[in-house]
Amino acid sequence: MFVVHKWRKHRRLITPVFNANLLDQFFPVFNEKNRILIENLKKELGKTQPFELSDYIRKTNLDIICQTAMGYNLDSQSNNESEFAEALRMSSELDCFRFLRPWFYPDIIFSIYKKLMGLQIIYKKLHKLPNQVIREMKESRAQRKMKNNKNAINTNGGDKKPLKVFLDTLLDLNEAGANFSDDDIRDEVVTMMIGGSETSTITVCFCLLMLAIHPIIQDKVNDEIFEVLGDGDQTITIEDTVKLVYLEQCIRETLRLYPIAPLLLRLLQDDVKIYSDNHTLPKGTICVISPICTHHIPELYPNPWSYNPDNFDAENVNKRHKYSFIAFSGGPRGCLGSKYAMLSMKVLVSTFLRNYSVHTNIKLSDVKLKVDILMRSANGYPITIQQRDRRPTYIKKIRILE
Predict the structure, then answer these.
(1) Known binding site: residues?
(2) Which GO-annotated molecular functions does the record name (predicted)?
(3) CA atoms 255, 260, 261, 262: torsion sign
């Protein structure tokens, strides 16, 4: 809220980073990182004691966002936590610390605090890898450009096209006159990784926990996955995700029940009239909007504290105001990465459920919330898993009758 002018400039320039063609070519990354997740989860099969789901999902999402944002294979699922992953975690904790203490909002105050407490080392470690990747990518692009100038003729056209990651697009924009500094580019990439990895992790964990609590809904999701993907192990495409309609309803219902952002802040650029009580909010007012309050209005969502994916079938969505669901924020400052996040989560959840069924002993009423800069489960996401019988529910029922 203190840098509206900078946000306007950067948002306009960064919007092309999330175009559909760019997202489509990320699917090999989504599929490969989820394959590793499925392999790692095998150690939990057959156990009667619940395990903490977020430990696995967090590493998967971090690997995905690192590869798609920077083109760097962090491989945290296979290795011990890297210096970068640890710095990312600690910087997120610092962001939470700052968010809950308004006197640290001004950058100059927080900079003095970081210096006095010796916290710059965290950001130094956080920036080390992105700075290195940016430097190497700029050098590689310069060498490639020189090579192309010397060899204007394309030899055979058979070379595999490299993955074009978010960082590539930012560098393209810079060459086209966007005038980002290297620090600007680094900060945008780090923001994508901090914002993208943890929010998707919490949502996926909540979604799988909800499906474990509601096995009938889980069966319905599994039936849809079977209908779209069959019982083989073929990789998931962007076209497949479009057909996973009920799964998306489950993810959206999860975000309605447990929106990741507890608060949204807006600095009014004009006077805003509130027609319900004939008040006017003057220009310059900082407004606080609560997604969890909006998402639990009974007039919008009957039985608002229950889990009902039918809240997001087409008929019900069309009945409601477009801002009745603001898990991805809304308006000019809506989440730019919402489509990327939804595609990534649909691939992860569908891959998980193709291989494992999820189970838990807890009830919906047992879920307690912890709120800081994000909203998450206070008691984690305890589940057990079993090898999935991929046959749809109606085939299983026929077998039982036989």
Answers:
(1) 335
(2) heme binding; iron ion binding; monooxygenase activity; oxidoreductase activity, acting on paired donors, with incorporation or reduction of molecular oxygen
(3) positive
Is residue 386 classed as helix, strand or coil in its secondary structure? strand
Between CA 35 and CA 307, with CA 361 as vertex, the angle to 5 degrees is 80
Q: Which residues are annotated as a binding site for heme?
A: 335
Distance of alpha carbon 124 from alpha carbon 142, whole angstroms: 26
3-state secondary structure of 60: helix
| Consecutive H or E run containing 54 | helix 54-70
Residue whose token pair is 């649909």: 346
> Tokens 């669901």 label which residue?
325
**What's the CATH number of domain 4-151+161-258+306-315+338-401, 2.60.40.10, 1.20.1080.10, 1.10.630.10, 3.10.580.10?**
1.10.630.10
pTM of the predicted protein model: 0.89
What CA–CA distance (Å, rounded) separates 206 from 208? 6
- Domain parsing of the chain, residue ranges: 4-151+161-258+306-315+338-401
What are the pLDDT tens digits along the chain (402 aa)?
A: 334 445 455 666 667 667 777 889 999 999 999 999 999 999 999 899 999 999 999 999 999 999 999 999 999 998 777 889 889 889 888 988 888 888 998 889 999 998 999 899 999 999 999 999 999 999 988 888 777 765 554 444 445 567 889 899 889 888 888 788 899 889 888 888 888 889 999 999 999 999 999 999 999 999 999 999 998 788 999 999 999 999 999 999 999 999 998 888 888 889 988 867 778 999 999 888 999 999 999 999 999 999 999 999 999 999 999 999 999 988 777 787 889 999 999 999 999 999 999 999 999 999 999 988 889 999 999 999 999 886 777 665 555 545
Exposed e or buried b for every residue in 220-242, given b needs 16+ CB within 10 A? bbbbbbbebbeeeeeebebebbe
Inter-residue contact 271 to 284 (CB < 8 Å): no
Task: HSE, CB side, 13 Å, CA atoms: give it for residue 11.
Answer: 13
